[in-house]
Amino acid sequence: MVRLIALIISIVLQIIAASIALRFMKLTKYRLSWVLLSLSFAFMAVRKIIELFEVLRGTPSLTWQMIDAWIGVIISFMIISGVILIREIFYSLKRAEIDRMRTERKVLNAIINTEENERKRFADDLHDGLGPILSTVKMSLSSLNARIDDPSGMVILNNTNHLVNEAINTIKDISNNLSPHVLSNFGLASAISAFTTKINQTKTVKIDFKTNMENQRFENDKEVVIYRAACELINNAIRHSGASTIEIELNKHEKFVTLQFYDNGRGFETSSLKKEDNKGMGLSNIETRVKTVEGVFILESTPGKGTSALIKVTD
After folding, report:
1. Residue 61 in 3-state DSSP?
2. What domains are there in the chain, each with its CATH number?
3. Under a CB-based contact definition with an 8 Å cutoff, are residues 296 and 287 in contact?
4. Which of 75, 153, 180, 284 is deepest in the core (most CB within 10 A)?
5. C-alpha 182, offset from chain centre
6. In what order do the strands lie in the sheet with 245-252?
7. C-alpha separations of 297 from 102, 204, 291 in Å
8. 277 pLDDT above the threshold of 60
């Protein structure tokens, strides 16, 4: 009785397994490997049904034993063939994943390139549009110097001239921050050096920048990504970490370029970045940008011990 119950349960389970496998055939586009495996499940159920009939009859039949043996051979052949051929499904899934990643990278590259082009266009509009207008205003104010005798009028004129100069300098700074001409004309090392020099002049933080690249250039997309990442890391250190010193090393190796960053700020728990609502947009943007050029971004931080980061991009 126990054997009979076990056989019935086994038959039911194998029929369920066979029906599920047969339903998946459409999803696999009727690939031969899955068809063979699905049929092997069905034949297993048939084999168990034959065994059930033998148990119910009570007397073994040589014919049914031969059929059962040959069904076992067929099942074994189907399983072996299916397992060998099923590699094609895994290869297809792997190819689909690679294609998806490539497409995603192309989309991200297109977005970043569009952003950089818009930055450059806006910077050019500011520099070439407002810049000449303010310069003309400055020239007009200068021509008034000889025509104003009233001391109070001269004070107003000088103050206006000073404000125009401030506006011209501000436009230059905004234009340069949007699309630094040093980066496009002289390269990554010069651009980061110019940016850190400007920050050092503010006396808010001391930045020590070292590099072995000097005037060496590489792909423009990668230069832009590393430059934006360096600027974002510096801005984060100034705004959030309370750091007094920052160390940056930009080095070119045989096959890749690395940017190493360290600040002595208050640090933070990196585990908090795993929470979607706590992840800073700046760090997220760095990670996304670096991935678009097939680079690596590693961030380490400990409360009270500062923050360090590594960016590695193939040359």
Report:
1. coil
2. 2-85 (no CATH), 180-315 (3.30.565.10)
3. no
4. 180
5. 26
6. 206-211, 245-252, 256-263, 307-314, 296-301
7. 19, 26, 8
8. no
* Site of tokens 């930009």: 250
Cα–Cα dist 206/223, whole Å: 24
Residue 4 has pLDDT above 60, yes or no: yes
What the block records as the tokens of 12 is 């039911």
Q: Which residues pair with 258 in a beta bridge?
A: 251, 312
Extract the tokens encoding 136: 């003309």
- Pairwise CA distance, residues 28 & 96, whole Å: 14
| Global confidence as pTM | 0.60
Six token digits for residue 32:
């031969």
The token duo for 197 is: 């020099």
Output the pLDDT for position 68.
Answer: 78
Closest-CA residue to 242 (of 262, 265, 224): 265
Q: How many Å apart are CA 272 and CA 96, to the nearest integer?
A: 32
Band (pLDDT 50/70/90 cuts) for residue 278 is: very low
- Using a 10 angstrom Cβ sphere, with 0-12 exposed, 13-18 middle and 19 or more buried, the burial of residue 251 is middle
CA 114 – CA 277 distance, rounded (Å): 27
Contact 30, 60 (CB under 8 A): no
